[in-house]
């Protein structure tokens, strides 16, 4: 009797919890022509553009567990203190009200490519004609000893998916006494947002310079050198953050000790710091891995680049940071937005009996703030090559800024506002 | 069968909507779809259908005259118009893509 009431009690709690977590304005329909999983730069764009490019003829269901979109680009400025969480947060309601995307707030637990169904944590499943998976990245905590527990307890943060951890890392920096050390560790490429760690280190150095001038920033990089915008970052650091920021390449973290606030490396001596920001290796979002789509080194999803259809599963398109990149393509929000559009166009063509664009192209523009106003960019254009079935950059195109400048600081913020609107509104 | 005027009206409206939807769906050719998707590659920075957010220093493209836009893109490409990023982007685009993009934005009403 006691046991039964206990079981019933916990069941009641579970269902309450489910309502609290996953209670959605839109219930999960039984089917949709297009189902999109993940409402980040890739998925939200794909959902909106299937609607736009089909002249609102194809129904789209977007499944996303978070109540609002929180942008990774610009989130380093929240950590640096010049922007707020509100600045980088956009609700999903306009996708629904303006574009008729059905937004279901839930978490996908299984995909069955044979039956063409998606199952959600809140219960129920939905059948699709076309599935677009945009699950972002998964952090491989088990590649660094002690990191899983240190991360779960909130002692060692990543803040590599913008959200509560972004604010928590800011708080750790605010609470750190002047004279302390902030250390960020970078995994071997490829990882989400190549210049992101260097921008973050710059933001923290800027904050220290203004408010805690005796403090230090350490960048411990598993790579041979700065992986993006290297000369621009290094010149700015030397001229502006001398004595504050130190860059140390070829340091691969293998273990952390959260209690002793210590990083252990494969070769070199231990490093101690007050605030540890440890970025482990990354791979495709877990739902893609679990579905068997991460067929490149068991980390990234192989795709047919013209349509972004998985090489493993028909009618499943994978976009954003989860994919195996074509040469020189970065894992960035801007790229994911571009993937979303090429995929939306391919899906609309295939569902409408039209030929797929034989020559799509992708663009990337990525801005990094080196302090609260000055910015450097990297840009590239990637044309689809039908002969080699991949994207190639055009010789002579693309490039970086000549120097950090305030005009691009304005453009960078306008870029963010415009791409958020293009993705979500 | 005795239909009230209201139910006949409803049926006619439904028929008109169905026909309209059918016409819209059929009206799209492969070229229209591809051209719109090609032009959407500018929207990351310049806004959906070339409409930027209020106060954006990045210019709107909606309704920009085609000849003007083609000339600006050429000027970015050959360096005669200075830019922060557009000189690098335009060098990656074919003349046909620039023509498609310019035609699309010129066709939209501001």
Ends distance of chain B? 50 Å
Given helix and strand content, the structural type of chain A is: alpha/beta
Into which percent range does the helicity of residues of chain A fall?
25-40%
Overall 3D form of chain B: globular
Main beta sheet strand tally, sense and closure of chain A? 7 strands, mixed
**Helix-and-strand structural type of chain B:** mainly alpha
Q: Mean of residue pLDDT of chain A?
A: 94
Largest interface: A-B, 51 and 35 residues
Low-confidence stretches of chain B: 1-6, 8-25
Overall pLDDT metric of chain B: 85
How far apart lie the N and C ends of chain A? Answer: 54 Å
**Assembly context of the chains:** heterodimer
Helix content percent band of chain B: 55-70%
Secondary structure tally, helices of chain B: 6
Output the number of helix runs of chain A. 11
Low-pLDDT runs of 5+ residues of chain A are 1-24
List keywords for this structure.
heterodimer, A: 425 residues, alpha/beta, seven-stranded mixed beta sheet, four-stranded parallel beta sheet, 32% helix, 25% strand, disordered N terminus, B: 110 residues, mainly alpha
Summarize the structure.
The complex is a heterodimer of chains A (425) and B (110). Chain A is of the alpha/beta class.
Structure description:
The complex is a heterodimer of chains A (425) and B (110). By secondary structure, chain A is an alpha/beta fold. Helix content of chain A is 32%, strand content 25%. Chain A contains 11 helices and 24 strands. In chain A, strands 1, 2, 5, 6, 7, 8 and 20 form a 7-stranded mixed β-sheet that branches. In chain A, strands 12-11-10-16 form a 4-stranded parallel β-sheet, with helices on one face. In chain A, strands 21, 22, 23 and 24 form a 4-stranded antiparallel β-sheet that branches. In chain A, a hairpin with a 5-residue loop joins strand 21 and strand 22. In chain A, helix 2 runs parallel beside helix 10 and helix 2 packs across helix 11. The longest helix of chain A is centred in the first third of the chain and has 21 residues. Chain A is globular and about 65 Å long. The N terminus of chain A is likely disordered. By secondary structure, chain B is an all-alpha fold. Chain B is built from 6 helices and no strands. In chain B, helix 2 packs across helix 6 and helix 4 runs antiparallel to helix 6. Chain B starts with a helix and ends with a helix. At the A-B interface, helix 2, helix 10, strand 21, strand 22 and helix 11 of A face helix 1, helix 2, helix 3 and helix 5 of B.
